[in-house]
Amino acid sequence: MTKVKLYDTTLRDGSQAKGISYSVMDKIRIAEELDKFGIHFIEGGWPGSNPKDKEFFEKINNSKLKNSKIAAFSMTRRPNISASQDTNIAALLKSKAQVITIVGKTWDFHVTEVLKTTLDENLAMIKDTVSFLTKKGFEVFYDAEHFFEAYKANKNYALKTLVAAQDAGATAICLCDTNGGSLPSQITDTIKELRHIIKVDLGIHCHNDAGVAIANSLAAIDAGASIVQGTINGYGERCGNADLIPIIANLKTKLKIDCVPDVALKQLTHLSHFVSEISNMRSKNEQPFVGESAFAHKGGMHINAIMKNPLTYEHIDPVLVGNKRRIIVSELGGKTGILLRAKDLSYDLSKGDPKTKKILELVQALEHKGFQFEAAEASFQILMQKHLKKFKGFFTLEGFKVVIEKRQDKKITSEAIIKLKVNGIKEHAVSEGDGPINALDNALRKALKNFYPTLAKMHLSDFKVRVLDEKAGTAAKVRVLIQSQDEKDIWNTIGVHENIIEASWQALVDSVEYKLLKDRK
Predict the structure, then answer these.
(1) What's the CATH number where 217 sits?
(2) Considering the domain boundaries, does residue 153 fall inside one?
(3) Can you tell me the distance from the alpha carbon of 508 to that of 397, in angstroms, rounded to the nearest whole number?
């Protein structure tokens, strides 16, 4: 079986995505999870560029990684000085990384316009840097920046930069589609040509500006590349990097190329969600292979076929990548959708069972009022359990009050007061928040924390409000959708009411109770 090595750059390139800022501890946790999964190389950052990356390399050496090599990233030495005098190179030596990745200019346009030096000096910079590091005992990867543009603009010079790195001792050369503008056919043709010239391992590093980073990466591997760089969930600058999640899944399940053990593949969904959680980024429902919607079925015809044979509408078994099949309950799914959801919950229903008809009628009636259970499976699970009298409540609300105050200094504050009972014990909590719903969420958690400490491990990751009848103006009914997550799962809940606070409360309670239902199992 062909072997491909995975090079993860989530901790460097991924951290450059808008909205992501990793602490040192965040980076350590992600690195340890990547190691557990079986990633071959983990690029920890640029030790010469900032104190955080420097600290990461100091601390990661204390982690006993079993599968991964830690790589430190930097650029070639500066023009007209030796590698031994360059402060960035000195920082690499102190990092104690097992692999050093050096990025260099391959495009003559960048050499003259950005580096402001000569083409010959750039070749010397590549050769001197790689040679200096290999002589120090490091495994050196050379990242050929903007390579595909460079190859189109000046093929001879672009090749000279690769040969300079190879002759200096680089163990691998990674071709970078830095602007993300290349197409798979160009990637394929270029790598096939280079395979006759470059003797060391070739890698591929793609960005997603044209929306084809995954396709480009797979095309490169098909053409002969043996190392693929990318980030978990495709995090990265601008439109992001190549997403390693679907790349790994496609390599293993479609191309039968070995990159991680089969047992690791079953942790793919967990890895994706774990990194999104640490990154404080909402998981993408539509993400191939691991998204919540990747194996979700809504239409009655689809559901009926899936019941007979999953291959009718699924390209792989979701279990292979640690995901699961989801049957979306809606008025379009009919009784079949109800039956499959009941089966997931270990309830024995049949098409002829009056309970099945009653639940379907209830779903149709609620959706007519504005509920949308296809977007809120957690709420549906609670609804079904209550209807089947299988639900045991976790608390009883006695009442709540939300106060919004605008002060003379124009500052707006929100305070929630909540009274409830848990197993006959009264609880009274008061909490402030950024808004009325946040205050209510904080007060509810505060009241329940002593009874259900695992609630501290969940948080609300998305909150959406939709007006259902614009013509009704401020009296319109609204639909509130809340997405919540913990380190293992993501779930969605719903509330509908003319009062936005009440609609939010419905969704909020379902979210908390679903978490507690999970923990009760």
Answers:
(1) 3.20.20.70
(2) yes
(3) 13
Q: Which helix (H) or strand (E) holds 93?
A: helix 87-95
Q: Predicted confidence band at 337 (pLDDT cuts at 50, 70, 90)? A: low
User: What residues pair up with 228 in beta bridges, in sequence order?
Assistant: 6, 204
pLDDT 10s digits, 474-486: 567 888 989 898 8
**d(Cα 399, Cα 403) in Å, to the nearest integer?**
14
Could you tell me if residue 438 is inside a domain? yes
Per DSSP, what are the bridge partners of residue 230?
8
List b or e across 234-250, with b for residues whose CB sees 16 or more CB atoms inside 10 angstroms: bbbbeebbbbbbbbbbb
Phi, psi of 45 (to 5 degrees): 145, -165
Name the amino acid, one letter, at 370.
G
Q: Quick check: 233 and 291 in contact, CB under 8 A? A: no
Measured CA to CA, the distance from residue 12 to residue 45 in angstroms comes to 5
Residue 77 sits in the same domain as residue 104: yes
* Distance of alpha carbon 397 from alpha carbon 374, whole angstroms: 27
Domain membership of residue 329 (yes or no) is: yes
Residue 217 lies in a domain: yes
**In total, how many domains does the chain have?**
3
Q: What is the pLDDT of residue 387?
A: 84
Backbone angles phi, psi at 148, to 5 degrees: -70, -35
CA angle 87, 92, 94 (to 5 degrees): 95
Indicate if 146 and 54 belong to the same structural domain: yes
Whether residue 379 sits in one domain with residue 402: no
Pairing of strands 227-230, 5-8: parallel
Q: Are 13 and 241 in contact (CB under 8 A)?
A: yes
What pTM does this model have?
A: 0.73
85 φ, ψ (degrees, to nearest 5): -95, -10
Higher pLDDT, 171 or 434: 171
Amino acid at site 139: E
Q: Where are the beta strands (DSSP E) in 119-261?
A: 139-145, 172-177, 201-206, 227-230
Q: DSSP code of 318?
A: G
Q: How many whole angstroms separate alpha carbon 72 and alpha carbon 49?
A: 11
Which helix (H) or strand (E) segment holds residue 163: the answer is helix 155-167
Nearest to 7 by CA among 191, 271, 242, 281: 242
